[in-house]
Amino acid sequence: MKLAIVILNWNGRQMLAQFLPTLINYSRDDAEIFVADNASSDDSIALLRNRFPTVKLILLDKNWGFAEGYNKALRQIEADYYLLLNSDVEVTHHWLTPLIEFMDNHPEAAACQPKLLSVADHDRFEYAGASGGFIDRYGYPFCRGRLFDTVEADNGQYDNRQEVLWATGACLLIRREDYWTAGGLDGRFFAHNEEIDLCWRLRLQGRRIFCIPESVVYHVGGGTLPKGNPMKTFLNFRNNLTMLYKCLPEKDLQHVMRWRFFLDYLAALQTLIVNRNFADCKAIFRARKAFRKWKPDFAADRARIQQERKVEQVQEQRPYSILWQYYAKGRKTFGQLPESNRQPDD
Hints:
Elements: E1 3-9, H1 13-25, E2 31-37, H2 44-51, E3 56-59, H3 65-74, E4 81-85, E5 89-90, H4 96-105, E6 109-118, E7 133-135, E8 141-143, E9 146-147, E10 150-151, E11 162-164, E12 171-175, H5 176-181, H6 194-204, E13 208-219, H7 230-247, H8 250-273, H9 278-294, H10 299-308, H11 322-328
Parallel strand pairs: 1-2, 1-4, 2-3, 6-13
Antiparallel strand pairs: 4-12, 5-13, 6-12, 7-8, 9-10, 11-13
């Protein structure tokens, strides 16, 4: 099989019913569609069996989360490429071909993503991935088309193919060999930052990640944990710190972690005092405590990643603070950032 399109589902009946028909209509003959179900308690399985009999089912025994759920599902699939697809993504005609052709013609590429626009507004980027992702010096992720809560209208300004640090897990095309060579998604993360962590590890191995904007999909976003959910805040902070610990070179680790100590507690105070959100403030404190507690469990991972790294400094991890650029310098769009127009090698 050339391509396996794999949707991880947990109680997503409504999204499956809404978006699977278009996915089936616009898939290629060399692609198989799978739904891996994380032990849903709704009638997702009945829906799939009754309305979408051509979709292959993988039934998992419990809710393993996004990361380990995908690992367990993909171990059961043989394909040249995996395409990890959220259930709340609306695909478009001819969306697959640019992605597949690019990967076929660029063996140095481990993964790529399409341009993600919003289901609610087809002329605006979608928060979770937009037109390809980067991180700043301190581990904060941002995208072409989205910095923090500033989401741009799509006026073709990011329609060039671009090498990025991470491709969104909402629609991620990745070579099977690269996925498993890098160790797959880190199942301990459960959800959030897991695709950034995987892509960063691939970049450190010398592999490349791209956004291919000739392919366009539309994403609802926030379907599993909506913005402002304390669990989402907890997972984002805990997993982001863990990712930094695993991937940063020794020369940067202590400096970055000292700054993150200050910045994370500043964020906690901001959520409490400005936003009056005690739950999110508490979640940040809990996340830092959880990171300290499980940090020793990742020591072997860090040692292996640092030993095997082939790239000392990944250029898509930008050397500045995105917080400073955004709040102090007033640079609210990706195009205003330093080095934003640097192009990949052809």
